[in-house]
């Protein structure tokens, strides 16, 4: 298991921002295209509602994915803290036994 530095974590997450920007741009482009297309009101509203639902679905998927990543990172951080605590306890115990052995 490799541990990433803060800089590596920030740099590896850059793709999500791009995807969100791409989705927002696509949604705005689709909405603009629909607004300028020669359609009747009911058909236009139906198309806009479908586009809005698609964007909302994708945003939910991105949120769920981000929540899963945060949960995984939290679990890993907890494991690392527990492991570090055990290591500190071992060092303390070893230090005490060395100290008592000399006395």
Main features:
103 residues; 0% strand; mainly alpha; rod-shaped
Low-confidence stretches: none
Q: How far apart are the termini?
A: 41 Å
Number of domains: 1
Global outline: rod-shaped
Radius of gyration, Cα only, in angstroms? 26 Å
Share in helix: over 70%
- The counted number of beta strands is 0
Give the strand content.
under 5%
- SSE succession: HHH
Mean pLDDT: 79
How large is the count of helical segments?
3
Largest sheet: none
Helix/sheet category: mainly alpha
Please give the structural blueprint.
Elements: H1 6-12, H2 14-36, H3 41-102
Helix pairs in contact: 2-3
3D architecture notes:
The chain has 103 residues and is mainly alpha-helical. 89% of the residues lie in helices and 0% in strands. The radius of gyration is 26 Å and the shape is rod-shaped.
């Amino acid at each position: 298991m490799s541990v990433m530095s803060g800089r590596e974590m920030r740099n590896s997450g850059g793709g999500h921002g791009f995807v969100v920007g791409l989705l927002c741009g696509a949604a705005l482009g689709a909405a603009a295209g629909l607004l300028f297309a020669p359609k009747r009101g009911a058909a236009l509203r139906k198309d806009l509602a479908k586009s809005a639902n698609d964007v909302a679905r994708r945003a939910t998927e991105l949120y769920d994915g981000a929540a899963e990543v945060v949960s995984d990172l939290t679990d890993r951080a907890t494991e690392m803290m527990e492991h570090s605590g055990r290591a500190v306890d071992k060092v303390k115990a070893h230090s005490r036994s060395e100290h008592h052995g000399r006395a």
